[in-house]
């Protein structure tokens, strides 16, 4: 998988150019993370060729990319071998009506989870940016503390928001910290200063 810092149109052009000489698509868009950050997925050789294309083709001059250290190419055709098993397990589960608002990272909003949704999520592109912008439109300005620690999610949300300056986004950074009390104090102080 390869993060490419460019618009959706730029990434579509890159995908088309890489796939132009192949009978089957070698890469595809896996994640629409932000207006200027998308992720493509493909076999390791195709990802290497994509990186080389970005470095050599003048049409993509200045387009930055970063290879992700992953074991599998999720959100792509590369998951095909596991989808039937995932559907079988998913069909054995009960999906009650959500009691809280649920926003999926799908192209279109969905108010419920059906048994096919886990395999669709594994196979289809993730529309993270679209989901964040739907939440932003629905809730307006928000306080969003990180619900984990040391993840890339807060910076991803900032890049996906239409108006990041209208939100209080608080990451919880435990790595390289001086202890949980200091981290808790910093988060509390930041929330107090920036929003509350």
From TrEMBL:
**Domain Malonyl-CoA:ACP transacylase (MAT) per the UniProt entry, residue ranges:** 1-195
Q: Which residues cross the membrane?
A: none
Annotated keywords: Phosphopantetheine, Phosphoprotein
Q: At the top level of its lineage, which domain of life is listed?
A: Eukaryota
Annotated coiled-coil positions are none
Can the keyword Phosphoprotein be found in this entry's annotation? yes
Q: What is the protein's given name?
A: Malonyl-CoA:ACP transacylase (MAT) domain-containing protein
Name the source organism.
Lepraria finkii
């Amino acid at each position: 998988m390869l993060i490419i810092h460019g618009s959706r149109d730029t990434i579509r052009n890159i995908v088309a150019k890489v796939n132009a000489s192949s009978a089957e698509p070698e890469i595809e868009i896996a994640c629409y993370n932000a207006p200027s950050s998308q992720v493509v997925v493909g076999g390791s050789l195709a990802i290497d060729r994509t990186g080389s294309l970005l470095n050599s083709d003048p049409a993509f001059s200045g387009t930055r990319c970063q290879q992700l250290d992953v074991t599998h190419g999720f959100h792509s055709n590369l998951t095909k071998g596991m989808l039937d098993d995932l559907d079988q397990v998913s069909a054995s589960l009960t999906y009650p009506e959500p009691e809280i608002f649920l926003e999926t990272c799908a192209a279109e909003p969905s108010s419920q989870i059906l048994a096919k949704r886990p395999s669709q999520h594994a196979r289809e592109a993730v529309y993270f940016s679209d989901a964040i912008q739907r939440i932003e439109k629905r809730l307006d300005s928000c306080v969003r503390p990180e619900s984990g620690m040391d993840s890339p999610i807060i910076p991803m949300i900032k890049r996906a928001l239409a108006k990041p300056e209208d939100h209080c986004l608080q990451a919880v950074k435990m790595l390289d910290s001086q202890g949980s009390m200091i981290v808790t104090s910093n988060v509390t102080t930041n929330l107090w200063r920036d929003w509350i």
